Amino acid sequence: MKSPLVLVFLCVAAALSLAQQKRAGRPSGSTVSGHVYCADTNTPARMASVILQPAEQIDAIHPGEDQHISSHGEMTQTLLDGSFNIQHVEPGVYYVLAMQQGYVSALASIYAPPAGRATPDARQPKKPLMTAPRITVQSNLPVAVNVSMERGAAVSGTILYDDGGPAAGVRVSILVRTKGGWTKLPSSPVASQSYSAGSDDQGHYRISGLPAGEYLLEATLSIQGMYYNVNETNGTSVGTWPIYSLSFYSGGSARQKDAKPIAVTAGEEFGGQDLEIPLTRLHTVRGSIVGAHDGHILNGGKLSLLNADDRSEAGHASVSKDDNTFTFAFVPEGDYILRAEGVDNDYLEVPNNYPNAWPPTHTEPKLLRSYGTAEQPLHVAGELTGISISAPDPPAQSAQPALR
Q1: Mean pLDDT of the chain
Q2: Alpha-helical runs (H) found in 126-187
Q3: Which of 375, 267, 389, 229 is nearest to 324 (CA)?
Q4: Range 37-50 average pLDDT
Q5: Residue 144 burial (CB < 10 Å; 0-12/13-18/19+)?
Q6: Is residue 63 part of a domain?
Q7: What percent of the chain has pLDDT over 90?
Q8: I need a surface site. Which of 110, 210, 237, 307 has the fewest CB within 10 A?
Q9: Residue 299, in any domain of the structure
Q10: What distance in Å separates the CA atoms of residue 100 and residue 49, rounded to the nearest whole number?
Q11: How far apart are CA 401 and CA 371, in angstroms?
Q12: Domain that holds residue 226
């Protein structure tokens, strides 16, 4: 499965930037100011985020490709009259991005070709898709610019189990088509603009700010490991790590290739996009990896559950020090290939050497012996437990004794 598209901004607020510039003794730079307006209401965009993004990062994007943006910039918020003012901006060329929940991000428009239009070919001259104003900042010369934001489309619906119960806490994401397949529409963590949402206690979700275009909906049912710590001053820290997840897509399929895209128009409120999780047709697959030469249970390794027809990944799991068995939770009925790469490890508890560390230690595996890759067919029509998959010795290790 293609790794998700991640859009990362490392932005510095104007006040912090000024303090850093003073410490570094850099020139004071120029001022960028202006107003942001909501095009649908012709009113000021109040408390919107305004980001100056260096233009070279944006100009390097090829629409329809899975690319990352990693850069720095200047950021502020508009006042109640929609005005903004960013001081001490270094000379350069920037895009002025305005972001607010419910409105279309100019960056998202690059990644979301309108429905019915082919994804642009990077070999052809790139058309100007960026709608944000482009400015040139020169030393000690102020720049004034106004930005207009367009209301985006919104997709909403309900996630239910097939017994009628609401599926609360399910993460629903918007996927956009790229040359390599479907991947998540990039969000802006800095401006708190997200193209995913968790279902509420009634299973309802809503995602807004979408450009007109064609998308897939992905609802992810996941199990996570968690720890927490509350200290004597009521400070709380929570940590999570993934254990197992399964996604369902618009059209009711558990496989992305069988999903049905949805098309939204500019500013459309597209409701009724409900998804059902087939609880009665999901099963648990549990077992162990064993060494083929002597049958002992391995205490480490990674496993994948592949769809039998095209070998696409349906899920993955692992074996760790805490449990020598692997578990694939809620696997849809069907035919699969179970793939395993096993190891024998020695697990060491290593202190976390920082003040008030929690947890106080972490585990570091020490590899004792690795094994070859094993595969076996698997038909899932009900609960499967006690599965054993034999991992062969690699050729170079076939004559070595087992390390337990």
Answers
A1: 83
A2: none
A3: 389
A4: 95
A5: exposed
A6: yes
A7: 58
A8: 237
A9: yes
A10: 6
A11: 12
A12: 153-278
